[in-house]
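USER: Fancy drafting a protein?

ASSISTANT:
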Amino acid sequence: MNSLAGESVAVVGAGVGGLSTACYLADAGADVRVIEKNEQFGGRASVLERDGFRFDMGPSWYLMPDVFERFFGRFDRTPTDYYDLAHLDPHYRIFFKDGDEVDITPDLAETKALFESYEDGAGEALERYLEKSRENYEVGMEHFVYEDRTRVRDYLDLDVARQARGLSLLGTMQGHVEKYFDHPKLQQIMQYTLVFLGGSPNNTPALYNLMSHVDFTLGVWYPEGGVGGVIDAFVELGRELGVTYETNQPVTAIKGRYGAFLVETDPRDGEDSPARPSAFEADIVVSNADYAHTEQELLAPDQRGYDPDYWESRTYAPSAFLLYLGLEGEVDELAHHTLVLPTEWNQHFEQIFEEPAWPDDPAYYCCVPSKTDDDVAPDGHSTLFVLVPIAPGLEDTPERRERYREQVLEDIAANTGEDLRDRIVLEERFSVEDFADRYNSYRGTALGMAHTLSQTALFRPPHRSKEVDGLYFTGSYTTPGIGVPMCLISGELTADAVFEDYGG
């Protein structure tokens, strides 16, 4: 007998965490309905389609392929049942603003030689660094990511202590990287992945050196149809398991508790989802909406686990200034993934975390999926989006966006040799206010709560509501944290909590 047979579940929000949780709960026999505010699935992993151009609006890197294989494997499927993968070569290109240009490729010997060219002994140092990264990844994933240790006493167990021995649990990424490399450019190469975690070298725990194993060893991939194609796969799998979906249904309130929930919505007309009744009954509710929004806006005051001061005191991951550009012709100088980095990037991080301001000399990312996928742009054209991490909560006016757009396009031309300005046939912009409006994102953060030492593991908000029986949370605010793979795992951990509490 399925352990959740007879239980009805409403999942609020069709981001990765919500889609993942829905699959696990439906597979266990629950009657699962996903209720989504916007017109499409994926949350921040939405897709923008205009005039033959297709853009991943948010996540665009396919990392940690083992996590996706494990997820689909839990349902006796594989990722290739839904989409194909291309291994990118180069993984990515870096333009330093002093004129240097490097490619990071799948060939580790080539990468070691590159490091050696910057610093004597750096090639062997890279090998040692990656061995430590591999150890942290394998132990961390098995014992601390796939297992939700929510209490201090969970870390006092002797077996846990044995597994944790040797992990880089304390210190910052900056201090850890400095033990291996002196050259600032090599340090930057090892730390750029912190952008995926919403942190900086000086506030992210050294444990996250595991991301270098993800980058250099597991590789960088491109899924057919982009990350949007992966979202389609999650939805298709859910349907195969019996999940039903409602789009254009902004949730306005969550009332009740286990066995007697009412999820109220303000429905919008849509092509696939005409306006429907504005309330859904459920035995159990899982919120994949922004955690702070759920607590502060959807729950009554006596049902909230945290007060406004808690949310105000958190450190948030950056927001972003995004340009989605449809271009005439090819973009020869840029790779599928390209990073443009100042030779001194501390100022940019300071203008995100210390003294919030629009960055004067930004580090940023360019993605050209049409390099790999012919279906994302019309013939003779290219798709490109540009992402500049910026502080959440910044004043975001049309005038500011226009000025910053000019600054960024000029910077691309100056530092990559690719002048885009006379070739743009389609342009859309997205920034702080859009994150807040489209995703109900606290202060317009693009990712959620940053991975500082005091906001990692058991210090993140829990999957179970602290006040309401039968209410759960999933997604980037919970463990294990930020990023598509982590949100996929978050869905599993949330489902495990539901099984533990209400499974037959």
